[in-house]
Amino acid sequence: MVEIPALETPRLRLTALSERHFDDYAAMLADPDSTRWVGDGQPLDRTNAWRSLAMLLGHWQLRGFGMWALELKETGEFIGRAGLMFPDGWPDLELGWMLKPAHRHQGYATEAGNATLDFAWNQLRAPRVISLVRIGNEASDRLAERLGGEHIENIDFYGSNSHVFAYYPPHRERRRAYA
Length: 179
Known about the structure:
This protein is of the alpha+beta class.
């Protein structure tokens, strides 16, 4: 079994998804505003939310990386998910995120995205990470750009027109100069 590492940012704990997160996770996936830009765009019932949670945990076992639950460090409250995905059929290693509506537009996705990219560069030694953002999801376009993503192309991804943002590791020499 792969041990899922925990990461911390100034305000967040990125930790393994678990059954204790399920009620909040299922409520997030039942919200049409939360699911509008992912999968088929439809909300999920509890059965399919459970399957989603199980798939995300299984991804860690199969690939050695995956999505984390996002918790506020101060309270332990579950506020969303973020991490890396590369299931069969994906074009590349993807950085993704989803926040509960009450926690959007507060910089949490940026914090989680930066921590995830740091993990990709320093732990996985990934040569590149992408984000797939459905055309029309302007908030996620802006987030990808804040994280340093470069819009490299548009693709039809499982029937949805999507922007592809690419992220590349920072130059190692330059990084050492600032350390």
